[in-house]
Amino acid sequence: CFSPNLSTEAVATKCRRSRTKFTEEQLKILVDAFNKKPYPGYAIKQRLALEVNTEESRIQIWFQNRRARHRFLKRPEKNLDLRQDRAYPEENIQGVRDRRCRTSYTSSQLQTLMNAFMENPYPGIDSRQQLAEDIGVPESRVQIWFQNRRSRLRIQKKREPEEGSAQRQNQGQ
């Protein structure tokens, strides 16, 4: 993805998915859904994706971005009693049933993902789409797998110095 011959703008264009642009009608559908339920479940996001003719992952990102902007617009008072301010109590009950099923990977899929990760821990959209096609899972799952793997790698790197100092202390005793 990073090539010395490409400008920064060309690299961003090459590596990133193009911005999803919604029409007025699509935005009206999404805003109405957001006003009813800012944390929709997987089934609702799938239905909305069909309704506005886009991928479920784009709907998920739209809701995340909308919630982030909405937080700045409506900041709650700090002294409010949170137990009385439950705007969406049904979410807690339905949340478990409405989640996406956990994606299970076969050993060959994991091997393919790990090889790709060793080559490039930050693959662009084209690489992720090709990987998704190769292993037979949606691109959004490949994207999440890479995010989780990078996070796990950072955690492991943080633990290594701690484990090394603990071993040195045990050897000294």
Automatic annotation (TrEMBL):
Residue spans binding DNA: 15-74, 98-157
Matches recorded under CDD domains: homeodomain (cd00086)
Predominant subcellular localization, coarse grouping: nucleus
Any one GO molecular function term: DNA-binding transcription factor activity, RNA polymerase II-specific
Keyword DNA-binding: yes
Compartment(s): Nucleus
SMART domains attached to this UniProt entry: HOX
Keywords: DNA-binding, Homeobox, Nucleus, Repeat
Keyword Manganese: no
UniProt xrefs under Gene3D superfamilies: Homeodomain-like
Residue stretches making up the Homeobox domain: 13-73, 96-156
Gene Ontology CC: one annotated term: nucleus
PANTHER family xref list: DOUBLE HOMEOBOX PROTEIN A, MIX-TYPE HOMEOBOX GENE 1-RELATED
Annotated protein name in UniProt: Homeobox domain-containing protein
Organism: Sousa chinensis
